[in-house]
Amino acid sequence: MTADVERALLVWPIVASLVATFGTAAFVFLVAREGFFDLPAIAAPLLNWWRFFATVIFLLSPLLLLSVTADMASVSWTSAVDLVPQVLKGTHAGRVFEWFLPMALLLFLSVHLALQQSSRTVMMLLFSAALLLLLALLSHAIDKGNVAVVVYFLHEIAVGLWTGSLLTLWTVARCENSRDEWIEHAAGCVSKVAFWSVIVLVITGTYTAYNCIGLDIYRLVFSAYGRTLIVKVTIFAAVLVIGAYNRYYLVPKVSECGARNSLLRNVQIEWLILIFVVMGVASLLANTPPAHNMAGHPMSEGSCTM
Fold first, then answer.
1. Is the residue at 300 inside a domain?
2. In terms of pLDDT, which residue wins out, 297 or 63?
3. What is the residue-wise DSSP string for the chain?
């Protein structure tokens, strides 16, 4: 197993957990404003998810720091343990982790302490957003300047809103006390959030891809980064087909029992593919160095992220 794959296996559950946490918390506030359910009633079914996500982030974040340290020093994880203090004090990544690790602890504590649901939801939203920003600062986007970091962050926010809205709808709809009227209204909100999230994802993803491979078809087809990007876009397009079917066919008929059941089934499939497949490939892509200097001849690879 290569170092890129090892890093991707660590990054994927952390990023997936963060975007899902941010997206669910944000969607709770969005739907609560509509008055069909009060905020505690929407947030309560998500508590187990939040605890799971926060635990994943808390446990894997130190391992990610160890992986980064080992990669910097080109040593094994065991040898990297003694080098962690140097990385924390003397590198950009280390300074980011000095904020990331305590923030992950705060996120973990906020879901395990006895708090009001409204206060907990605010904490989940703020802490997860801060951690996503720190991930953007930790990424190779920092090498491209502030604009690239902002674009990366917006990409994370968009995928979080999309996946989080789907997960919230599916989770709350399965509760015994959920009303059909709320499901119908929430489905419309999910449709709107997903629509605008996809637009942001396409724009930010295109910008990052252009930064990494430009308009060179040779780089796209023959570099590892380009081929991974093609796989990601293909799977993303398949998810869009499901989303489009939900938006334009099932959501208008959501008042009908059969359409509502089909919608909830498709919503589950959609967010599972996004979290486990699209984000898994995206994590591999983020840790695959693209070719920067290809011009129709053998590659010279650098590093970038998406």
1. no
2. 63
3. --HHHHHHHHHHHHHHHHHHHHHHHHHHHHHHTTTSS-HHHHHGGGHHHHHHHHHHHHHHHHHHHHHHHHHHHT--HHHHGGGHHHHHHHSHHHHHHHHHHHHHHHHHHHHHS---HHHHHHHHHHHHHHHHHHHHHHSGGGGG-HHHHHHHHHHHHHHHHHHHHHHHHHHHHTSTT--HHHHHHHHHHHHHHHHHHHHHHHHHHHHHHHHHHTT-HHHHHHSHHHHHHHHHHHHHHHHHHHHHHIIIIIGGGTTSHHHHHHHHHHHHHHHHIIIIIIHHHHHHHHTSPPBSS-SSSS--B-----
Pull the structure tokens for residue 126: 């703020």
Query: What is the predicted pLDDT for the residue at 204?
Result: 93
In a 10 Å sphere around its CB, with 0-12 CB exposed, 13-18 middle and 19+ buried, how is residue 199 labelled? exposed
Domain range enclosing 14: 3-286
pTM: 0.87
Quickly state the pLDDT bin for 36 (edges 50, 70, 90). low
In a domain, 296, yes or no: no
**Which of 66-70, 74-78, 114-118, 197-201 has maximum average pLDDT?**
197-201
CA torsion 222-223-227-229 (nearest 10°) is -140
Q: How many domains does the chain have?
A: 1
Q: Flag whether 301 is in a domain.
A: no
Tokens of 303: 């590093």
Per-residue pLDDT at 155: 93
Res 1: pLDDT = 56
pLDDT higher than threshold 50 for residue 195: yes
In a domain, 145, yes or no: yes
